[in-house]
Amino acid sequence: MPVEFIGMISTQDQSETRPSSGPAIDKDYVRRFARAHEDAGFDRVLIGYNSSQPDGTQVAAYAAAHTERLGFLVAHRPGFMAPTLAARTFATLDQFTGGRAAVHVITGGNDAEQRRDGDYLPKDERYDRTDEYLDVLKQAWTSEAPFGYHGRYYRFEDFHADVRPAQQPRIPLYFGGSSEAAYRVGGKHADVFALWGEPLAETAEQIASVRAAAVAAGRTEPPRISVSFRPILGATEELAWERAHRILAATRANVEPFRRVWRRAVGGNEPQNRGSQRLLAAAEKGELHDRALWTPLAAATGAAGNSTALVGTPDTVAQALLDYVGIGVSTLLIRGYDPYDDAVEYGQALLPLVRDEIARRDALSSVS
Amino acid sequence: MPVEFLGIAATSDGSEIAARSGASFDKEYTLRLARAHEENGWDRVLFAYGSGSPDPNAAAAYIASRTSTLQLLLAHRPNVSYPTFAAKTFATIDQISDGRVTVHFITGGTDHEQQREGDYLTHDERYGRTRECMQIIRRAWTSHEPFDYEGAHYRFADFVSDVFPVQQPRPRLSFGGSSPAAYQTGGAEADIYCLWGEPLASTAEQIESVKAAAKAAGRDDFPKIQVAFRPIIAPTEEKAWEKAHDIVDRIEDRVAAGGGALSRRRSLKNPENAGSQRLIAIAAEGDRFDRALWTRTAAATGGAGNSNALVGTPETVAQAILDYIDLGVDIISMRGYDLLADAIDVGRQVLPLVREEVAKRDRAAAKAGSPAA
User: Fold this and answer.
1) What is the nearest CA distance from B321 to chain A, expressed in angstroms?
2) For residue B31, which residues of chain A lie inside 8 Å, CB to CB?
3) pLDDT tens digit string along B2-21?
């Protein structure tokens, strides 16, 4: 089965290794960055979310107008929009982009960050609300007849959307989280469950948790699995590791300004979210795991988001990615520390290696 | 002072006289209609909002990337998203469109329509919420320091946006409504106050109510006033009136065929919103008012939205519009019953006449040494 590659675009040049530069929305950068991903062969790009950022749906619409094929994965936190409107927002985007929209549902892992947009629910209740929200979203995308909803968080009557997604039966739902509540809700609703890059053994555990939750929710087909990494490539192993250490030094040097920005996003150095706690635990166990997974960059930032690296030659990193495909992962979400240049480099050096090997294996298995 | 013209953005070709010819969502038509406005003299188009409609913001994003000067008026109901979230969305569109956004606050005039998206507040409570929402959005667009808010409807802590509008200090806030609660809210908060087209005398009354509310709120300026009509033009008066009667016949046929309604969304009887009640009361007083105002189209649709017509030759309709400008109206909103054809015809035949006359008056006023009233 072909693997899906997801990159990431932002509205200005930003990385843990240096202060952000340029205006908050640099249109020219967005256009070039999206095209770089399209040309590199990425299937989709993620557009992130936090309480201070530009609206990702708008960014996607703009990038879509300047690309032909690239898909968009728009991060979306339930709780700030009526789900009836969110359904129409994404359906409208899907129509205008010719079926290139997907939604990445993130429930929010930090109380202070949620309160910036007026959300005072405790975390487990947030996941219960997400559960209802996704019930509504799916029904709004597919229901032919008007319907009402009477839940704990949402109540409405006689709703009917005049606009449907271009994709049938509906827009794909990706879902992030690593807590029990996340497994439960994502296991029930997600088409793709997204994890941050942990060692193979821990990743396998998480996949099992997601699948168990899907079975408990009565699903016959579990969610597909996405894992995120920060690949650091070099022409030789030695050059790759030199580069990794340079990135680590720059990240450490820039950590205070980065944390100031990130605190706005996640509120503190002690992460409340399970995903960051898990990355820090992996870093605690050791710097290098499996073939090429390197954790010091996660440790350096307090595991602020996708922050574990895969370090090595394109061959090594491709092999490391294939190890994850081997345990049931079918989507790889990757971005670099020099985001624009790395997207180009991944397209030249990394994506073809992984795709060719998977095509070879698929051909073998169809023969045998 | 130059007059501004607002047209309509729509994602399909349906109107009161004909069901849409294709899907509810027609990408090509959406773009053609917007470009027809841009190329024929319109300043801005309205992206309307209903509980089932495509998202105005997502539609505007598409149009913004394919037009260059057309301004975007985004209808927004405060109940459907959190104000800080909405502020970021609007600021992002303003960035992407290079400063072409105005936000149009519609509070919602019908309980059942509000309940379709989970809003169970009463009419006057809704206006209280709109007022808070307008205040928050204005602050989110302009505050570079984190701020908190504690209101009757919204509470949040430590919000600051990274994204600010291109327009400085901020995009304008437009507002619609004709109830006392609406005058109070819009009079206090709006940059543009929007009315549906009524006879000159009752329009003057409404303008007075808005100004009184602005004064009561302690403002030292007044909102600009926008009035909306449905233009029906033809080369002769006679042909224009034939066209007008044909339009009403077609509306009445559709209403009869629909069992007394044009859509499942809206009953034509006993509207809850003051704006529609006013249009129905005016239609009961008479079919024709002033130079060219015709109320049969409003009567046939139960005063559903902007529905009073201006009927006549382009010259007559232009003169009728100038009568409203003399009352103190700054912005004219119009859409026809054939959205695309009328955007072109009215854009080419009516708008230049009005603009020329306004410019002539402005020049005369400047010459006389007095500022234009």
Assistant:
1) 34
2) none
3) 999 999 999 999 999 988 88
